[in-house]
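Subject: two folds for Thursday's group meeting

Dear M.,

Sorry for the delay on this. The cluster queue was jammed most of the week, so I only got both jobs back this morning. I'm pasting them in the order they finished. Each block is the input sequence followed by the predicted structure tokens. Could you check whether the formatting survives your parser before we put anything on slides? The first protein is the one we discussed after the seminar.
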Amino acid sequence: MNVPDNQDNYVRCLCYSGRCPTYDENKLDGGLFCARGKHPKNPQQKKCICPDCSVWQQYQLSSLYYCIKGSAEERGGK
């Protein structure tokens, strides 16, 4: 499913909440990677908290590590 890149989803995004090891340990910026796609830094995988995110739940996503592997749309809506 395509996740809309809008302010409401960005505010609810957990990426930059201080709880995501992949985001924090790679010193990423931005967020809402499920809509925007992977981070240009090419981060190393640590742990993904996407399943805890209300955006992930609302759009019934099933994949992890959008910051590394690309948006839900790029990954076939997952």
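Second protein, same layout:
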Amino acid sequence: MKWILSLFLLFPLVSHAAVIGKTVEYQSDGVKMKGYMAYDDAIKGKRPGVMVVHEWWGLNDYARKRADMLAQAGYVALAVDMYGDGKTADHPNDAGAMASAVNKNATIRKSRFETARKFLDVQPLVKRGQIAALGYCFGGGVVLNMARSGEPLKGVVSFHGTLSTDLPPSSPGSIKTKIRVFTGEADPFVPPEQVEAFKTEMNNAKADWQLVSYPGVKHSFTSPGADALGEKFGLPLKYDTHADQSSWAHTMDFLKSVF
């Protein structure tokens, strides 16, 4: 028995963390939204919340995977539904149509995001007022527009998202949210002139911002499924291991700093 006790003292039992993921429903202007919430049930107490805004494909497995990764990192994550009823697309024509329907109406875009933010903010495990947002592709543009429009977020991160906006120019000091952007230098959806215009906008607004441009990297560089989709539909999509891992590591450091 003594040697058994000695082994126990050397190698105590460890409670293994488990990420809990579940579909959650909420209403935005009468439209049923189906999000995905994830958290680590081994962590005790309240923690910050992080929103994930999906690519133009909708709230699919990729967005849920990112929410799970955030949960593993110690946050309560909400993958947001921006289309309603959890709709997703398998073809770029359908994805583009759904993304455009949201983007062409700034009121709906802001309302759906804001409803999700408020939903996350009141969850029992979330520290009130401690919310950040990540966005991919379409979602990257959404989170940047939320920062521009004054959503009370600690920080936003855009991955291969559009940098242009339909909102009026931001006045100096109007952007309170800290902003980080990761883009591909060879991404035709975010050309150099768009990058330069964004830099000028952020500097004029005196925002707290940083932009990392990865040389030779194309659109959707964080998504392992990008190559297959690019080949299937003839789109300039390509996964890049270095850019993916680098941008995520920077994001983890950024979230720690804003919280």
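Two things I noticed about the second structure. The first strand starts at residue 19 and ends at 28. The radius of gyration is 19 Å.

Cheers,
T.
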